[in-house]
Amino acid sequence: DQQVKQNSPSLSVQEGRISILNCDYTNSMFDYFLWYKKYPAEGPTFLISISSIKDKNEDGRFTVFLNKSAKHLSLHIVPSQPGDSAVYFCAAKTGANNLFFGTGTRLTVIP
Amino acid sequence: DTEVTQTPKHLVMGMTNKKSLKCEQHMGHRAMYWYKQKAKKPPELMFVYSYEKLSINESVPSRFSPECPNSSLLNLHLHALQPEDSALYLCASSQGLAGTDTQYFGPGTRLTVL
Q1: pLDDT at position A42, please?
Q2: Which residues, numbered 65 to 84 in chain B, qualify as contacts with chain A under a Cβ-Cβ cut-off of 8 Å?
Q3: Which residues of B5-44 are buried (b: 16+ CB within 10 A; e: fewer)?
C-alpha cells in the first residue's frame, strides 16, 4: 500500500515560471517530510525538508508547504531553470528513520 | 561535504556468482542504509544499520547479506541472486536515527542478474 503518492508522473514548465509539485500521504503519524531530486544514473539528492510542526519552509528558490489537515505537501520552485529538470521524489517518515517515498514526478523545464 | 560513494557503478552477475556492493561515507554519520529501486518505482528500504548494528531488516531474502565493518563502511554481499533482483541499489547515511536526521544518498550500483 503506497502511503506517499505523487499523482502527476510528469510536469512541463517554461523557464522562469513557477513549478509546483504535489504529494499526498495517508499516514497521519508521519512527522517529517523531505523532497529529493534525482538525475538519471545518480542517487537522490536532498533538496528541502519540513517538520510537521511547521506549514512552510523556504530555501532559496525552493519552498515546501505542508497542509496537515489535507495530508498534502507541495514543492514550489521559483523561478524554474532548465537545470531543475529531473525526477522529484517526496518522502515522509515517522519517528523511526524509515523513509517512505512517493513514485516521483518528472519535471521538465523548457528553455 | 555530503558525499556517499558506492562501488561499483555497474555490476553484471550470474545467478551462481558471489559479489559485494560497497558503500562509504566520511561525514561521521552513525546510521547507514541499503535501498533497492526498480525501474519507475520509488526506492524501498532493505536494511538499516545504527552504530554498526543491524537495526532494521525489511524481510529481505537471505541471498542479500549486509555487513557494517566500521562506522564509515557498509557492504551488501550478494549470492545466488535471481533475475528479478536486477535493480539500482542505493546506499544512504544519516547523522543518526532521529526523525529530523536527513538521509544522504550515494549514486547507486546498477545491478543486472543474468
Answers
A1: 82
A2: none
A3: ebeeeebebeeeeebebbbbbeeebbbbbbbbbeeeebbb
- Assess contact for B114 and B15: CB atoms under 8 A: yes
CB contact under 8 A, B108 and A96: no
Q: Which three cell numbers stand for residue A99?
A: 523513509
Query: Cβ of B42 and A89 within 8 Å?
Result: yes
Nearest CA to CA, how far is A16 from chain B (Å)?
28
| Digit-coded pLDDT (tens) for B16-65 | 889 999 999 989 999 999 999 998 888 999 999 988 888 888 889 999 99
- Write the DSSP assignment of chain B as a string of letters: ---EEEE-SEEEE-TT-EEEEEEEE-S--SEEEEEEE-TTS--EEEEEEETTEEEEE-S--TTEEEEEEETTEEEEEEES--GGG-EEEEEEEESSSSTT---EE---EEEEE-
CB-nearest partner of A104 from B42, B103, B107: B42
Select from B42, B56, B100 the Cβ nearest to the Cβ of A32. Answer: B100
User: Inter-chain contact B100–A102, Cβ cutoff 8 Å?
Assistant: no
Distance CA B47, CA B15 (A): 22
> Is the CB of B32 inside 8 Å of chain A's CB atoms?
no
Query: pLDDT category, A96, cuts 50, 70, 90?
Result: low
Contact list, B31 vs chain A (CB under 8 Å): 97
